[in-house]
Every structure is written in structure tokens, then in C-alpha cells.
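[09:14] KT: can someone run the structure on this one? pasting the chain below
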Amino acid sequence: MNWYLEVLKKYATFSGRARRKEYWFFALFNIIISIILGVIDGVTGSFDPATGVGVLGIIYSLAILIPSIAVAVRRLHDIGRSGWWLLIAFIPLIGAIVLLIFAVQDSKADNEYGPNPKAAETAVTA
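[09:31] RB: done, C-alpha cells below
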């Protein structure tokens, strides 16, 4: 849960780097919260089968849009890529596959976006 809250604290921070752990825990909690909100929308009758979303789902999606983009950009920075690579998602299927490959790659050494956050955490715990 801390990783999710850390991303929300950096609401619109597009600079710096985000480890895989931060990115994937944020994605996991987003999926869990979306499922819960979908169930609530279904029970309360605010789910629209024609669009496939409910009122709470739309509100949550809009609230989490900027932090989602920001953590994705920071994740790209962590592997030494520009945040502009996020635009590759507009290429159907191939863009999603490329971004998935980028998201699972390990952190690179210190680069133009800052020091390696994985190395900094290891040094603190050691």
C-alpha cells in the first residue's frame, strides 16, 4: 500500500525515476480498486452496460489519470528512456507490447534522470 501512496504523493511529478516495484504495485492496487468500484457500481445500479463503466469507475479513472502517466514516465526514466516513449501506446497492440517490455526491464545505472533508486535503497538497508 505504501508504494501506491508514494505515487499519489508524487501526483504530477514527471521527473526522477520509479523502480519496477513502485510501478507494478501501483498497477496492482489500481486493478484491485477498479474491481471493487465496479462491484459497487453494479450493486448500486450506476453501471452502464452499454459503455462498460460506472459512475465511480469514471471518477476514479479521472482522478488517477495524471499519477498513472507520471509513474509511467518515471518508470521509463528508470530504464534510461525518455517519457515521450509513452506515446508509442497509440500504436495498436505493438505499442502495448513495447511498453510492457520496457516496464519489466531492470533499473539501469545512474543516468541523466538521476541516481539509481534501487541502488540507493540497497545501500540504506545494508
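[09:33] KT: thanks! The chain has one domain: 2-121.
[09:34] RB: yep, looked fine to me
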